[in-house]
Every structure is written in structure tokens, then in C-alpha cells.
């Protein structure tokens, strides 16, 4: 894993950033947590790639607040050319 930022999907809409931070902090230092409003996904940035890998391996496909989370390495944001 090259990057320390993780995509976290299939979240319950009731999950808050502090809950995700607490969960991921078990695997290292959490630099930032962002939940995309009412979309069921977000991003967690760990302090380094090794911690991100450990969190991904431990938490992917596990139950959290009644949903099975998907945790994967975040992909770089794509440029959108559809703006007029």
C-alpha cells in the first residue's frame, strides 16, 4: 500500500466522524476523518501507509453499526471536465 488515505464505504448514515476515528485509532494515529454527508462513505487518513494497511486488513468486510464496511486504499480524485 502506497498511501495512507483509506476509502470507507457502506457506512450507516448514523455513523459520525468521532466514531470512525475511535475505530481506526486502534491501528495507529488517525490524521483526519471525513464523512461525505448522507452518502454512506468517507475517508480516513492514517499517519503512514503501514498503519493504513493494518487498518484495511483488520476492518475490511467487518460489521460496524449494523453494516458491513468496505475499506480500501483511496484513489486519487479524478478531474471532472463536465463543468460548464
CATH topology: Alpha-Beta Plaits
Radius of gyration: 13 Å
Judging by the overall fold, what is the CATH architecture? 2-Layer Sandwich
Q: Please mark out the parts with pLDDT under 50 across 5 or more consecutive residues, or reply none.
A: none
* CATH homology superfamily name: RRM (RNA recognition motif) domain
> How helical, in percent, are the residues?
10-25%
- Average predicted local confidence, pLDDT: 94
Strand content: 25-35%
User: How many strand elements?
Assistant: 6
In order across it, which strands form the biggest sheet? 2-3-1-6
Q: In CATH, what is the class?
A: Alpha Beta
The number of helical segments is 2
Give the topology string: H per helix, E per strand: EHEEHEEE
- What does the overall shape look like? globular
Determine the N-to-C terminus distance.
36 Å
Write structural notes for this entry:
By secondary structure, the chain is of the alpha+beta class. It has a single domain (5-69), classed as Alpha-Beta Plaits. Helices cover 23% and strands 31% of the residues. It contains two helices and six strands, in the order E-H-E-E-H-E-E-E. The protein has helices at 17-24, 49-59, and strands at 5-9, 30-36, 41-46, 63-64, 67-68, 70-73. A four-stranded antiparallel beta sheet has the order 2-3-1-6, covered by helices on one side. Strands 4-5 form a two-stranded antiparallel sheet. A hairpin with a 2-residue loop joins strand 4 and strand 5. It is globular and about 40 Å long. The model has no long low-confidence stretch (mean pLDDT 94).
Amino acid at each position: 500500500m502506497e498511501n495512507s488515505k483509506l476509502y470507507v464505504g457502506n457506512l450507516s448514515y448514523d455513523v459520525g466522524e468521532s466514531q470512525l476515528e475511535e475505530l481506526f485509532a486502534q491501528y495507529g494515529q488517525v490524521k483526519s476523518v471525513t464523512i461525505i454527508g448522507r452518502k454512506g462513505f468517507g475517508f480516513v487518513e492514517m499517519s503512514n501507509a503501514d498503519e493504513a494497511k493494518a487498518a484495511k486488513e483488520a476492518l475490511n468486510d467487518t460489521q460496524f453499526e449494523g453494516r458491513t464496511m468496505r475499506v480500501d486504499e483511496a484513489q486519487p480524485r479524478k478531474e471532472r471536465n463536465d463543468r460548464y
